[in-house]
Structure prediction request, 347 residues.
Amino acid sequence: MASPPLSAKVDLPTPSYLAPSPPSSSWPLGGLYNRYASWRKSLDLPNPGSVENLQKEVKSTHLTNYFFEGGRADLTKSLSANPIFQVTHSFLLGSPTSPPSYNFGAIFANNNVFLQGSVDHDGNVNARVNQGWSATNVTKIQAQMSSQVGHSMIQVEQDYQGLDYSVNVKGVNPSPLDFTGIYIGSYMQSVTKNLALGIELLHQRQPPDLSETTPSYLAKYTSSDRNWIATAQMQGGIMQASYWQKLSEKVDVAADLQLIATPTRRDAIATVGAKYDLRMSTFRAQLDSTGKVSALLEQRFAPTFGFLLSGEIDHFKNSAKVGVGVMIESSTLTPEEMGMVPMTGPP
Prediction:
């Protein structure tokens, strides 16, 4: 299945993290709770973000999630700006690792609802629904229906962003009859204005009576000026640490280190990368300890036309990959609705 187009990515509005309303003072413990809430609010601790977005800045800087191979074309048509409604045709061909594919997708979004769906030439269907009940409470549902056995799935998720903490609970293929499936719960708490600590529990329950629970411990440190972020995550014999820094308004750098020390495997992978945001283009470069050097250029020649060029060289395996793509956007919107200043003719 073709990867979703870069141009079709839509970010939901950033929620304003609001403090929960304190209980009434007529409640026996209301006074005690009010004093505790006032003391907690006086600490002025920031919201730490969700565990899922622990390495958001690093993933945005590295090109792991953006790299492609072969020929790619994304044709997007915007039908409405408010609410957002657009459709996309994506083509991918010429890749030695995957067959040619076609994908049709659609996105609808407003302040409270985000809907995204896609279907490919094999009939595989993906759907995503986000429902915001308030500025801090969001329900998310993702589903995939595939003709291949074992590839269909559904994920139900509840996300809550508190004043200085975040809670997330999700279930993957949950069964209400025998409670089989994969269940994940996470909690992130700011302990100072710079440091946040968290824990994530992953519980797998498979028939007949097989179950396993794996904890993960997380830490995130953010500088006072928000210009650099360091994170660490430990799960069993696997540790992952990352560092991201904004060197200037247009340059970001990031590093990631993964250490694996299990009875069956001992390994370490280090990755460094940089992202340059220019006026009409974005360039990403990446180097890792496995001998891979990769780069991705996204060049906008016009607001409605973009050119993509990606490449990777594996020095240890003596192999190379190249990708070329285009992004074309058409719209029924006026230049003012698209945020463009119409060009004036000669006097």
Q: What stands out?
A: The first helix runs from residue 30 to 42. Residues 1-21, 341-347 have pLDDT under 50 and may be disordered.
